[in-house]
Amino acid sequence: MAGLALAPGVLPRSILFLCGMNAVRSPMAEQLARRMLPATIFVASAGVRAGERDPFVDAVLAEEGLTLGERHPRTMDDLEDDYFDLIVTLSPEAHHAALELTRSLAVEVEYWPMPDPTDAGGTREQIMASYRDVRERLKLRIGRRFLLPEEKNATD
């Protein structure tokens, strides 16, 4: 059960971005959403299992003027609050885990499939291009899902 759907144009009060290890896609989404969305929305990220911090994430976020600071990957068990209005899953593993977790909860779950840039090979620049691609896909998806047309123009 995906829970209660939010009415069009109604922003959730809290969003959790969930991926496999909370090392790449979900922390990127968390930082981008924190910058793009109103400060009144609580935004967090977690992984299904524990991962290691990825230096390429730091590099592509720095290009946007963002940072993870001292934050390290965490699992859902590490979160202080486990109730969210919306859980956005970014990998198949995370989506299945979220659906299982929320079967009896009134929580909306959305699946935004994102490629895993850690699969990229080649030169440092080719790898960075894969991470940038994910960052840009996340920015676009966050903008399309949560921002009104006039707000989208203000962030362009």
State the gist of this model.
This protein is α/β, with parallel strands linked by helices and about 160 residues long. It has helices spanning about 25-35, 55-60, 90-100, 125-145, 150-155, and strands at about 15-20, 40-45, 85-90, 110.
Plain-language structure description:
This protein has 156 residues and is an alpha/beta fold. The chain contains five helices and four strands. It is globular and about 45 Å long. The model has no long low-confidence stretch (mean pLDDT 88).
How are the SSEs placed, and which strands pair?
Blueprint: E1 14-19, H1 25-36, E2 42-47, H2 55-62, E3 86-89, H3 92-101, E4 108-111, H4 124-146, H5 149-155
Parallel strand pairs: 1-2, 1-3, 3-4
Q: Rounded to an integer, what's the Rg over CA atoms?
A: 15 Å
Largest β sheet strand count, sense and barrel closure: 4 strands, parallel
- Report the helical percentage: 25-40%
What is the helix/strand order? EHEHEHEHH
Q: What is the CA–CA distance across the termini?
A: 36 Å
Query: By helix and strand content, what is the structural category?
Result: alpha/beta
Work out the strand percent.
Answer: 5-15%
